[in-house]
Amino acid sequence: MLQQLFFGYYAFMIIILSLLVVTRGNPVHSVMWMLLLFFHIAGLYLFLNAEFIAAIQVIVYAGAILVLFLFVVLLLNLREELSLRQIAGSWPAAFFIVAALFITVTAALGAYVQGPVGSYSIEAIRSETHTKALGRLLYTEYLFPFEIASLILLVAVVGAVVLAKRKLRS
Amino acid sequence: MPIAMPNLIPVMPELVMTGVAIILLMAELVIKRKETLGFLSLISVGLISYLLLGSAGTTFGGMFVSDGYSTFFKLIFMANLVLTVLISPKYLQTMRINFGEYYALTLFATLGMMLMASAADIIVLYLGLELMALSTYVLAGFIRYDMKSNEAAIKYLLLGAFASAILLYGTSLIYGLTGTTNLRDIAVYITHNGLAKNPLLMVSMIFFAVAFSFKIAAVPFHMWAPDAYEGAPTPITAFMSVGPKAAGFAVLGRVFLVAFGSVKTDWSVILIPIAVLTMAIGNILALSQTNIKRMLAYSSIAHAGYMLLGIIAGTPAGISSVLNYMFIYAFMNIGAFAIVIMLRTEGFAGEDISDYEGLGKTHPTAAALMLVFMFSLTGIPPMAGFMGKFYLFMSAINAGYTWIVIVAVLFSAISAYFYLRIVMLMYMKEPKEVIQLNTSPGIGLALAVTVSAVILIGILPAKVLALAQQAVTSF
């Protein structure tokens, strides 16, 4: 019961905070709500016994990325953005689709049957420690996806340089 | 803990591709003539194609599989890459965006496509998709000073991120149900545990269908395509209209026929309306376009609809006809874009359909080539497009979907109007102004390759089809 309450609180807050992030007119407010959102996501990870990912979520997302966001927002001149409408005109249609999707998924969730449980139970992770288990898996079983992820980061860096730093009209 | 060295032979083409892309990134610093980088990537494609032929096998604990199916798609990606690199340099100079990262990013995008085609695990599939998509977003926004190019990149990025989220939601549901992300294990678990009628499995399949529909630009998830195709640099539009679409079909085929093969009747119910809508909207909206890049965007949407017929048929003949059509489509579509690129000169966009008026008188060779590509896209014999459509429609009829084929033929007849309108403008109108063609040896070579492929496959279709059929047997 306590578990359900805990999860329910975080899930509900994540949805509310996400809505606040996208509906605020002032980008600084949006970023601050996003900070709170990231802390709640970290709470959800803790709830799943993934303390390492929770810590990373707080340090990397809340600590590093959001600070950069704030810097960018502060450096931009946002007079025009402040007067823009935050919600597009066709929101009733979007609301209808999202509501239909929500009802469908909720109805289908009733048919959920638990799949086979893997070898990493909570006890197994406790005895091995979470960080160690994660590192071991990343460098053995999931080495291949891990390497692809590194290429994605490389492309992101190259792309940022191409789109933002390159001198125009060489 | 001893770590076993994974078998690297199956991933050798991907490893070489990664190496070449990184070398190109560094070589960019010292090489002043950027065309040299393009030439280097062409050489690497030759090496990779050679490695591809001996790469059959499974590795990394069954996450990566190199079989006939993936090899055929990778050959399409190689053709796509070669043709894109050939038509690019002149355009990049004209637009003053001649940066070396262009070639490295096209290689990374192709690498992502190759990983998608070979993915036997949803995690590898997703990461390959992100690698491809991220590189393509950057390439779409490559003309930084152009608002339309920025718009193309941002629209593509936002809707692509949305599609990724939906794909991950579907993956999480399937992982919860089956406890695995391996496509074959999912299939085995579904049949052995009687999950076939589970509504949650159906929801998961819908999410997969939606995410892949974004990638192949199928209606109603096509909204990004016309804007992205119009704003992106034209060689990248050609690249985007073939590569990511082929990769999308590769994963669509593999996920739905391998992982969800046992519940085919359920997912064909999802795909049939998507296919019919795609053919209808794509062809009807193409009628009213005045910009040739937008028109070709809607045309590529419509072609995704035709190809969905082969997936819906689900038989080996259906899948091989999709492979066959994708191969033909790569040549005829990039050929058409090569002509569009030739019309672009400094200060003259050449993207209006009215710019083609009288091209038959001023530039008879270019007009004749465009005629071949337009005939092929319409599906008029003896061009390759006809044979491609013929096999697709045949396989769908044999699988019992006669009414969808009738619909497809009707819309295909509508498409003749906007393709042949260009032919009409070229040959039956007087030229308004003298248009300079912006040719280069690269574009000439690309046009020679595409036009001979379109005509040769049209006259002798058996060879490619046999290859496609062989590719599907290992599926």
Return the domain count of chain A: 2
Taking the alpha carbons of the first and last residues of chain A, their distance comes to: 64 Å
How are helices and strands ordered from N to C of chain B? Answer: HHEEHHHHHHHHHHHHHHHHH
The total beta strand count of chain A reads 0
Kindly name the structural category of chain A: mainly alpha
Q: Rg of chain B, please?
A: 21 Å
Helix/strand/pairing category of chain B: mainly alpha
Shape of chain A: globular
Strand order of the largest sheet of chain B: 1-2
Number of strands of chain B: 2
Low-confidence stretches of chain A: none
List keywords for this structure.
heterodimer, A: 170 residues, mainly alpha, Four Helix Bundle (Hemerythrin (Met), subunit A), 2 domains, 76% helix, B: 475 residues, two-stranded antiparallel sheet, 1% strand, globular
Walkthrough of the structure:
The complex is a heterodimer of chains A (170) and B (475). Chain A is mainly α. Chain A is 76% helix and 0% strand. The N and C termini of chain A lie far apart (64 Å). Chain B contains 19 helices and 2 strands. Chain B has a two-stranded antiparallel ribbon with strand order 1-2. At the A-B interface, helix 5 and helix 8 of A face helix 1, helix 4, helix 5, helix 6 and helix 8 of B.
Write the layout of secondary structure elements.
The complex is a heterodimer of chains A (about 170) and B (about 475).
Chain A: H1 2-23, H2 27-47, H3 51-75, H4 79-82, H5 91-109, H6 122-128, H7 130-139, H8 143-164
Helix pairs in contact in A: 1-2, 2-3
Chain B: H1 12-27, H2 35-53, E1 57-59, E2 64-66, H3 68-95, H4 101-118, H5 122-140, H6 147-178, H7 183-192, H8 199-216, H9 224-231, H10 234-259, H11 264-287, H12 292-313, H13 316-342, H14 359-362, H15 364-378, H16 384-398, H17 402-428, H18 441-459, H19 462-473
Antiparallel strand pairs in B: 1-2
Helix pairs in contact in B: 1-2, 1-4, 2-3, 3-4, 3-10, 3-13, 3-18, 3-19, 4-5, 4-10, 5-6, 5-10, 6-8, 6-9, 7-10, 8-10, 8-11, 9-10, 9-12, 10-12, 10-13, 11-12, 11-17, 12-13, 12-16, 12-17, 13-15, 13-16, 13-18, 13-19, 15-17, 15-18, 16-17, 16-18
